[in-house]
Write a structure and sequence with these properties.
alpha+beta; 2 helices; 10 strands; 40% strand
Length: 179
């Protein structure tokens, strides 16, 4: 009985340690603003491309938009462990997020959440996304699936942006460049 209690205590301590020491997922070149047009592979939508714009922060948070929807409580996570990196079955990273607003306003497509599967390739992301919903059924409940490539949003240094400009100031500074 004493051995069982000791074993249970050891497992509880290990679980606590693993939850506290969660490793950072993002690597420095990934931090920043990314954009691209996702190519819809779902056959039921009229819209064939969905614009995406996301910002990845040093603490694995992700903000931005997918189509007309805003990401809420989005987080960049490892999609598989280090030993599985050599296997081509899954992407390396995944963004899990709730959505606020329509993904495709024209088609009246509202979904509660989305997963963005990403692989880091040299200096950009390649992957796809899937919204919440079903693979089959009526359009009001079907998932939207899309392939994507995301490239870094270039800084406009001549308009007052520098590498030290806070990420949340990019849009305001870029807007002043266009005036």
């Amino acid at each position: 009985m004493r051995t069982r209690i000791t074993l249970i205590s050891a497992i509880a301590v290990l679980c606590e340690i693993s939850s506290v020491s969660r490793a950072q997922t993002v690597i420095p070149p990934m931090i920043g603003m990314w954009q691209g047009d996702a190519t819809v592979i779902s056959s039921w939508t009229r819209v064939r491309t969905i614009p995406m714009r996301i910002t990845i922060t040093a603490d694995d948070r992700v903000t931005g938009t997918v189509g007309d929807a805003m990401l809420v409580n989005a987080k960049l996570l490892k999609n598989r462990g280090d030993p599985a990196q050599i296997l081509p079955w899954k992407t390396t990273y995944i963004v899990e997020a709730n959505l606020h607003g329509a993904v495709i306003n024209k088609d009246n497509v509202f979904r509660a959440s989305l997963q963005i599967a990403l692989d880091w390739r040299d200096d950009h992301f390649v992957g796809g996304f899937k919204t919440s919903g079903w693979k089959v059924g009526n359009n009001e409940a079907r998932a939207v699936l899309a392939d994507l490539v995301l490239y870094r949003v270039p800084l406009r240094v001549n308009c007052g942006l520098t590498s030290t400009t806070p990420i949340h100031d990019y849009d305001r500074a870029n807007a002043s460049c266009q005036q």
